[in-house]
């Protein structure tokens, strides 16, 4: 568990170096071509739904096994020496996204604060899946805050949780399935049957971390518990609503609501519906809450590690 604390600290300080990304890409994205290749090969439109769903179950199991196997190989290569443990911590950092998430959302906040809506739209388009061309300042701030809250779980809390529970195999199995969910775990007819297993596996793996993420946001923002408990179940996802509703309550702003995806309006639940819409100033406050929540997460793992040491 102490490895999770140190990996969080190292990743927050260094992130993932751009020169390394340009040379080899990001380890989390390496499995994406395999996932899309599986979908192209085994998700034939003419096949019956039961077969496509069965193929999807097998694909999800293979994806999880590949992620876990990759992590296990790295962990065994590291060994148990002090140098090996240091290498393990370094190899865990690509599975975390504290620094990059902060940088991406801050890249939205800065142009929004100076009134450059075009630049703010471009920046938020890098972190959200919705159509951004028609967003006003409120829409940009809303999209960025929702992404910050949800990605706090997907990119920070959940991977750190599974790193603490299962080491590098747990971390990379989670990241592999989370990537699969983002690529094929959709409700549109093409993916509904084949991506079902990946989506449900991702839901299961995020069940505890999402609620931890929501609680950390509420503690860091000194509020938001009522909104989280009341509004989180409204979300179609069993997990995404927890950090988003907590952020809405902590900032006392309205999040969620209708959004346009691929030219179609999607009616989503509203969190904290009686509150005002967010502004650039709220985005700045959201980033402060996020930073404090990351610190609390590391402290929590540190306390758990010390408690485990005392029991031995």
How is the secondary structure organized here?
Elements: H1 2-14, H2 18-24, H3 32-42, H4 49-78, H5 82-92, H6 98-113, H7 117-124, H8 137-184, H9 189-192, H10 196-205, H11 207-220, H12 225-231, H13 241-251, E1 255-256, E2 259-261, E3 264-266, E4 270-271, H14 280-311
Antiparallel strand pairs: 1-4, 2-3
Helix pairs in contact: 1-5, 1-8, 1-14, 3-4, 3-8, 4-5, 4-8, 4-10, 6-7, 6-8, 6-14, 7-8, 8-10, 8-11, 8-13, 8-14, 11-13, 11-14, 12-13
Word description of this protein:
By secondary structure, the chain is mainly alpha-helical. It has one domain (2-311). It contains 14 helices and four strands. The protein has helices at 2-14, 18-24, 32-42, 49-78, 82-92, 98-113, 117-124, 137-184, 189-192, 196-205, 207-220, 225-231, 241-251, 280-311; strands spanning 255-256, 259-261, 264-266, 270-271. A two-stranded antiparallel ribbon has the order 1-4. A hairpin with a 2-residue loop joins strand 2 and strand 3 (264-266). Helix 1 packs across helix 8, helix 3 crosses helix 8 (137-184) and helix 12 runs antiparallel to helix 13. The longest helix is centred in the middle third of the chain and has 48 residues, at 137-184. It is globular and about 50 Å long.
């Amino acid at each position: 568990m102490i490895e999770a604390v140190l990996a969080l600290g190292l990743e927050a300080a260094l992130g993932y170096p751009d020169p390394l990304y340009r040379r080899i890409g990001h380890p989390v994205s390496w499995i994406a071509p395999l996932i899309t290749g599986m979908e192209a090969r085994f998700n034939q439109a003419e096949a019956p739904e039961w077969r496509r769903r069965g193929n999807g179950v097998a694909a999800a199991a293979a994806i999880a096994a590949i992620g876990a196997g990759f992590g296990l190989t790295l962990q065994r290569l590291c060994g148990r020496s002090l140098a090996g443990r240091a290498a393990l911590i370094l190899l865990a950092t690509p599975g975390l996204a504290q620094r990059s998430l902060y940088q991406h959302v801050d890249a939205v906040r800065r142009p929004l604060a100076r009134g450059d809506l075009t630049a703010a739209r471009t920046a938020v388009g890098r972190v959200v899946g919705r159509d951004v061309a028609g967003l006003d300042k409120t829409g940009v701030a809303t999209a960025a805050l929702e992404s910050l809250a949800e990605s706090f779980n997907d990119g920070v809390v959940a991977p750190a949780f599974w790193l603490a529970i299962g080491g590098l195999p747990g971390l990379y199995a989670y990241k592999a399935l989370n990537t699969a969910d983002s690529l094929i775990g959709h409700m549109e007819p093409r993916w509904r049957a084949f991506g079902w297993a990946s989506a449900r596996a991702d839901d299961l793996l995020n069940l505890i971390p999402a609620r931890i993420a929501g609680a950390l946001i509420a503690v860091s923002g000194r509020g938001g518990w009522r909104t989280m408990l009341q509004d989180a179940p409204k979300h179609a996802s069993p997990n995404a609503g927890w950090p988003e509703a907590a952020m809405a309550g902590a900032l006392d702003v309205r999040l969620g609501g209708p959004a346009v995806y691929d030219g179609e309006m999607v009616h989503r639940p509203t969190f904290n519906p009686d509150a005002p819409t967010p502004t650039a100033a709220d985005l700045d406050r959201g980033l402060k809450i996020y930073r404090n929540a990351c610190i609390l997460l590391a402290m929590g793992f540190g306390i758990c590690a010390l408690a485990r040491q005392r029991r031995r």
